[in-house]
């Protein structure tokens, strides 16, 4: 996940200005990573390394 995208997700779900560790933010970041990897695997079905990373996150 790119830095700008991660900052945007944190800003949307943060409880306070410097919040990066609350469960809302962590779940939002993990959800975004899962969505990104799912989209990647649709176009690259033989990428087993990314598939394993996705299964680890889920």
Model description:
It is a single chain. With 58 residues, this protein is mainly α. The chain has one domain (3-57): Helix Hairpins (Orthogonal Bundle), CATH 1.10.287. Helix content is 72%, strand content 0%. α2 packs antiparallel against α3. The longest helix has 21 residues, at 23-43.
Secondary structure: elements and pairs:
Elements: H1 3-13, H2 23-43, H3 48-57
Number of domains: 1
**Helical segment count:** 3
Architecture (CATH level 2) name: Orthogonal Bundle
Overall average residue pLDDT: 92
Question: What's this model, at a glance?
Answer:
By secondary structure, this protein is mainly α. The chain is built from three helices and no strands.
Which descriptors would you attach to this protein?
mainly alpha; Helix Hairpins
